[in-house]
Write a structure and sequence with these properties.
By secondary structure, the protein is an alpha/beta fold. The chain has 3 domains: about 5-195, Class I glutamine amidotransferase (GATase) domain (Rossmann fold, 3-Layer(aba) Sandwich), CATH 3.40.50.880; about 225-395, Rossmann fold; about 405-505, GMP Synthetase, Chain A, domain 3 (2-Layer Sandwich). The chain has 14 helices and 18 strands. The chain has helices spanning about 20-30, 40, 90-95, 185-195, 205-220, 235-245, 265-275, 285-290, 300-320, 335-340, 375-385, 390-395, 415-430, 485-500, and strands spanning about 10-15, 35-40, 50-55, 85, 100-115, 130-145, 150-155, 160-165, 170-175, 225-230, 250-255, 280-285, 325-330, 365-370, 440-455, 460-470, 480, 500-505. The strands form 3 sheets. A 9-stranded mixed sheet has the order 2-1-3-4-9-8-7-5-6, sandwiched between helices. It has a 5-stranded parallel sheet with strand order 12-11-10-13-14, with helices on both faces. The radius of gyration is 25 Å and the shape is globular. Residues about 1-5 and about 340-360 have low confidence and may be disordered.
């Protein structure tokens, strides 16, 4: 019997929202176990397990009029357990219970102000002087309240923004409490989990580690596993987790693509082979990657070429090692969200991550991705539980395709060398000024633009370097870091004065959304 099978839990029914796992993450942070299931699968279930003490219906890209696409078992609302509907889930509850949902006259996307109408257990300690700032994302709204429901709160464009039926334990909210932009949104989930569902804390990073180790052992059996190691936080945690789970059956492979940061290959080999004593194979495939990427400028093609070549290398070594059936990767939940639907619901694809949408359709190795439902901050906590040192745990994220997606346009050896130096100076300056750990991710990029400059009495015509530094909790939403003018002047001068090939530096002040963190 699995650990999670013995736990009372919250079940989240996913209707395709890109924020569904954020709900799960917030609940796990509260110390309560939860699971996610697609609405397609839950519609086929005749009953719910006894250990499910509360249900949450997620948001989603559909609307309640799309009956053919939305499969929802109406009997779920009569299970005598508390149910919370968020955004689309709120609309489903209202419609099924006899209310009306129509297209909004004015859509609400982004920050909105919600005003309290009535006291509720769900919104206890949520409002300040009867108001709260929340994050909305909807084009439909509940226009008629179902029978025996009360209005708890309203916004300017959603008069029935928070509703409840305490006798049936049904609650609906139009905004998203799971995103960081909703002020005190976690309080809503806390009230639902502890005060309404009556659950107690039963989950921690230690439980997470035990659960993942059991899952890996069950899936892998007696087979050997190759781990794609990059030296970043995610793959390092996967390597340590698998080492705990299967010991000597783990073989890590570190591939030098030629697109790594300055001196990165030396640091990774030294750390994992010499310090951690993990079985590590170093592969220098720089020529192969740069040859395949020659004359390629399309970002999706770059990712797919890199993903395919990685797999070919891993499959080649799997044949040499023998009895290798699995490939372990440090795929995280945001990677899955941006690349494809995670639960089978209708989520929008944003871009193919090299290790998700970038993989070839046919592979000789089966994937092991123990972190695929976790966010970066959860992975870091797991890493500490696995006794990884803080130097590795606190590293900024670095994409698998490396510098390839930080130089839009064609990839050349000259541009790679220029970008390596720019990145080195930027990251070193952050560390020297004690800013590195205040920032979630930072990098330098080389734009496919040359500009005129003047140095001394000479004209220059060189590349434009873009710097990006963001703050975030989970990589799903992000904002730019506000540097002091003196720092920006200093790093700009360092890059331009020390690197031949760059004569102009700009700083990216775009949040996510609307942009993504990486350029490609």
């Amino acid at each position: 019997m699995h650990l999670e099978d013995r736990l009372n839990k919250i079940l989240i029914i996913d209707f395709g929202s890109q924020f569904t796992q954020l709900i799960a993450r917030k609940i796990r942070e509260l110390g309560v176990y939860c699971e996610i299931i697609s609405h397609n699968k839950i519609s086929k279930k005749k009953y719910l397990d006894d250990d499910i003490k509360g249900l949450i219906l997620s948001g989603g890209p559909l609307n309640v009029y799309q009956n053919k696409k939305v499969k929802f078992n109406k009997k779920i609302l009569n299970q005598n357990i508390p149910i919370l509907g968020i955004c689309f889930g709120h609309q489903i509850i209202s419609k099924v219970m006899g209310g009306k949902v129509k297209q909004s006259k004015s859509r609400e996307f982004g920050l909105a102000k919600v005003k309290q109408v009535k006291n509720s257990i769900l919104t206890k300690n949520f409002f300040t002087k009867g108001e709260s700032n929340v994050w909305m994302s909807h084009a439909d709204e509940v226009t008629k309240l179902p029978k025996n429901f009360d209005v708890i709160a309203k916004s300017s464009n959603s008069k029935l923004c928070v509703v409840e039926n305490t006798k049936k334990n049904l609650y609906g909210i139009q905004f998203h409490p799971e995103v960081t932009h909703t002020n005190k949104g976690k309080i809503i989930l806390k009230n639902f989990v502890f005060d309404i569902c009556k659950l107690r804390k039963n989950w921690s990073a230690k439980d997470q580690k035990a659960k993942l180790i059991k899952e890996v052992r069950k899936k892998v059996g007696n087979s050997k596993v190759i781990c794609a190691l990059s030296g970043g936080v995610d793959s390092s945690v996967v390597a340590k987790l698998l080492s705990k789970a299967i010991g000597k059956k783990l073989i890590c492979i570190f591939v030098n693509t030629g697109l790594l940061r300055k001196n990165e290959e030396k640091q990774v080999v030294n750390t994992f082979k010499n310090k951690f004593k993990i079985n590590l194979i170093y592969v220098n495939a720089e020529k192969d990657f740069l040859s395949k990427l020659k004359n390629i400028s399309d970002p999706e093609k770059k990712r797919k070429i890199i993903g395919n070549l990685f797999i070919k290398i891993f499959e080649k070594y799997a044949k040499k090692i023998k009895n290798v059936k699995f490939l372990a990767q440090g795929t995280l939940y945001p990677d899955l969200i941006e690349s494809k639907s995670v639960t089978g619901s209708q989520t929008s694809k944003i871009k193919s991550h090299h290790n998700v949408g970038g993989l070839p359709k046919k592979m000789n190795l089966n994937l092991v991705e123990p972190l695929k439902y976790l966010f970066k901050d959860e992975v870091r906590k797991l890493g500490l539980e696995l006794n990884l040192n803080k130097e590795i745990i606190s590293r900024h994220p670095f994409p698998g395709p490396g510098l390839a997606i930080r130089m839009p346009g064609l990839i050349t050896k000259e541009k790679i060398n220029i970008l390596k130096e720019a990145d080195y100076y930027f990251i070193k300056a952050l560390k020297d000024n004690k800013l590195y750990h205040k920032i979630w991710q930072a990098y330098a990029a080389l734009l496919p633009v040359k500009t005129v400059g003047v140095m001394g009495d000479n004209r220059t015509y060189e590349y434009l370097c873009l710097l990006r530094a963001i703050t975030s909790e989970d990589g799903m939403t992000a904002d730019f870091f506000e540097f002091k003018k003196t720092f920006m002047q200093s790093i700009s001068n360092q890059i331009v004065n020390n690197i031949r090939g760059i004569n102009r530096v700009v700083y990216d002040v775009t949040s996510k959304p609307p942009s993504t963190i990486e350029l490609e």
